[in-house]
Amino acid sequence: MPSSSDALNTSARKSSQVLLGALARMPLEAISRAIAKDDSTSSRVRSGDARLTLGELCDLIDAAEMKLVSRDRVCVDRKKYEALATIAAAAMSDEESVNKLVWDGEQ
User: Residue 79 in 3-state DSSP?
Assistant: First the structure.
């Protein structure tokens, strides 16, 4: 039976792969600017062979246009989220729709 540390290690590996994939698509110069290091160091960062400070890692995540999200959150495409929020707001502004939601379960 897998332990919780196995799940955390799997999650960490996946996060590492996602970030390394994003770095592979970034120009080396962008990585260098983000962490204020030379191209040689940036190349090692891109391949996963260089150590970074926590601040450098955060700068790199920002430069890759990514962000950290709590494990209990779910990420969705911004356009889909905005579409769903628009639909939900429209439905909730219609009194008949709201009454159906509230009263249908009690009949």
Answer: helix
Q: How far apart are CA 4 and CA 16, in angstroms?
A: 18
Same domain, 20 and 53: yes
Task: Please give the Cα distance from 61 to 6 (Å, whole number).
Answer: 24
**What's the whole-model pTM score?**
0.65
Give the alpha-carbon dihedral of 27, 65, 24, 58, to 10 degrees.
Answer: 100
Residues 35 and 5 placed together within one structural domain of the fold: yes
Phi–psi pair at 78, nearest 5 degrees: -55, -40
Segment 95-99 mean pLDDT: 77
Are residues 33 and 54 part of one domain?
Answer: yes
